[in-house]
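Now read this:
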Amino acid sequence: MVPASWSRPVRLSVAVLTALVLAACSGADAGKEAAPGGSTPGRTGLPGAATVEQGRVSLLQKVGQDGPLRRLEVSVDGRWECADCAGDGVTSAGSLASEQVTRLQALLADPGLAKETDEARQYRVSCIGALTSTLLTAAGLITSQDCPGEERPPIAYEILLLLTQATPAEPTA
């Protein structure tokens, strides 16, 4: 249980992280015309919910309130770009191996992913100073923390492991 005096900073930290995700993704739709009914072609999820195109994924990670923000964007074809991936201020880019792309796309297409969104789980941050990972998928936002006793959404956790193992986490210089 989080002490009452800590709950506001934790909620604020998650709110800031979520705002960063939404801001990072707002530019992704620039130049696309809305389809009839007000939706964007290639997007799924609840109307008004934070989502990205089907097959794309974004990952934001941060330790505590003062840690660096790692931002990873992965396209449908497996090309990725990571800002501050290793906490060294460097932006890196690369591509996933074909097997990784196939696995990632299968995980992102899994209908069970929709049941793992923050909204579906009614997720609330419970730890202070822990590594917080937020995936932005076509299904919606999925947040998890490295905290003792926290349940990890299984499909989202597989995506998280795939992405963190396939991209640099060590200083590149």
